[in-house]
User: What shape does this take?
Amino acid sequence: MHKLWVLARNEVLRTFRDTGAVLMMIAAPLVLILVLLAAFGKGEETPIQDVPLLILNQDHGALGEGVIKALQGESLREVLSPTVVTDEVAARAQVDAGNVAALVIIPPDFSDAVFPLLGTAQHELGLDLRTMTPETVSSLPLAQQEALGALYERLQKSPPRTQITIYASPDWRISTSVIKAAVTQVVETLRMQLQGMALAVDHLVRLDLADGKIDAMSADTGWVTDAITASSAALPIAVEVVTPAGHGFNWVAYMASAQAIFFLTFTAASGGRTLLAEREWGTLPRLLAMPVRPATVLAGKVSGIALAGLLQLLILWGVTTLIGIWWGPPLAVLAALVCLALAATGVGALIAAWSRSASQAGALGTAVNLVAAAASGTFVPRLAMPAWMRYLSLLTPNAWGIESFSRLQMGGDLVTLLPLLGGLLLVTLVYYLAALVGFRRQYA
Amino acid sequence: MTIVVVHELVKRYSPDAPPAVDGVSFEIKKGEIFSLLGPNGAGKTTTISVISTLLHPDGGTVQVLGFDVVRAPLAVRQRVGVVPQEIALYGELTAAENLRFWGEMRGLQGAELRREVAEKLALAGLEERAHARVKTFSGGMKRRLNLAVGLLGSPPLILMDEPTAGVDPQSRRHLLDRVKALRDAGLTILYTTHYMEEAQELSDRIGIIDHGHLIALGTLSELVQMVGEHETLVLGLAKAEGGQALAGEIVGLEGIAAATADDGNITVSVTSAAQALPVVLTRAAGLGVSIRTIEVREPDLEAVFLHLTGRTLRD
Assistant: This one.
């Protein structure tokens, strides 16, 4: 066991001493992820059109309608294809089936959150401030005036918050990001309109109503005060994407994990290639002439390659997490990384076992890795690929890895990940068995 | 005490090809340097590979300190240190790290490992470069470290497969001195080479191997006696052309046992240089071959090889 560890340690040490290897293992994928991050942020080249979208307006006030009109507006016409619905259950079923990209849910308290005094005064005190003048407010019973003042104070201290929910289909990941961007833009536009309105009215109101809060509030209507408040900060509206699993999809996270797996396969292939290169260098025969079993030599070297791959993944996971990319619950991510390192190493060993020389293994490894990456959704969304390719790509560790991290990023945990890890370990077993046959043939 | 017993060893790489080693037998006694001398492809490395358990024999038996290489390979490997022909080191690791790694592979640990690493660094003359990466070393430094790695753990038998191949004269001298020092320290060494001078200088006994067959075995003096009173004439030709024809013309003449031509020289094994020389010169003149230099050599391993095979070691 000690010799196995020494062999593995030697493999890791040599890998990380090789500047070229480190550039390929760590720097290249990080740069690629950052480039993708920048490119995705611009979104100029995303060829997305007519994204089918459902809108459910539950708002008691008028602003919900405004949001709908904005989403149906000219500026988004080519991108979105919205349909207003009233049956939430049916709409969610449509999303679950993947027939539409998402369901945008405008909550019942949406307008109230934007104009809290107006809405809350009506709900709690039965006062419709929109129809009231300063005189009618002043003529209210003192108790009602005090209640109105207290309400105002309370709303100032803790304004209500609301949330537009985008219930998104995991089958429409990029489109979901576009929908989120569109809804966020509508909310921002609303804030800017309020700000413009507030600026105009604020001056007038202040001139007439400088004496006190209750006067200011009752000077005209509550919306003036609300508008002033709303314009002074971000609107209390969150835009959240949820998937059927309950978590948001993040394209950058998807790409980060996919690229990490992609570059892991190169590390593993390179490690496998060294199994043959060491034979050419003479270090493998020397190892085999040492008092150690050949199986231990092979196991030690393969363990070292897997360990180097795991370290590479851990570094990439760590760095990308530091820049805010969420891969999933740590324990589940760790389990997936371990399984992936083993699987990728199996592929590397398999290639080496059936190659005649290190150079042949190098060329074959590059070709296999590129095809596996393309077929498994490393460069394009996996769910955008034909079903047959998605199934066929399950022969690669890339596909299992991408599926695993997608599940984690959408709210999965270690338990829900287990079936995928089981599948990955099963194909990994096949890799190693096939590699073993190849090695036995080579060294017979 | 016998350390190695090789009996009727046969090894073939494919069923169609002739065996690389065919019926080779020899023994190596404790504390001796036994050299296998032969040209490239003679079967030296194959023999050493079987002894080190890297190759399985197709016939015959090989035992190291009583352990059969097929039945007890691990026991054999524990008792054998190998210095391969290639520089079998990790370039990305330092000299000390290489020694530590290979030492751990030998089963060394803790204080014993540290002591061995320090000793072998000193033996290789690399104490000051202990923490430099091997890929930055000169060829001679790598060769010395390559030798030192083979000696880790002081195994009773050291197999050295042409350890001076491609080495500059200074490093070669250093290595040869080290090999002799190891023998003086009581180690047993199997040394393969195609350099006659090395075999002559180092060996207690020499086995001459050619085309997979052990064609002669003995001490240097025993082997030279096989040639009898033969001397070697080396004729330098003005032009290489005609050398082969002249060698063919003179071989078999009275007093001429063998003749071979290569690199503008004709090497002739003769019973008497004084008697053979006029005949050779006459034949050369008849063929229009100009002789530039004439050298008469005392009997040596080259002469033995020429005598036994009709070829030089360089052929």
Remarks:
- The beta strands of chain A are 51-57, 80-85, 102-106, 162-168, 237-242.
- Confidence is low (pLDDT under 50) at residues 41-47, 209-221 of chain A.
- The first strand of chain A starts at residue 51 and ends at 57.
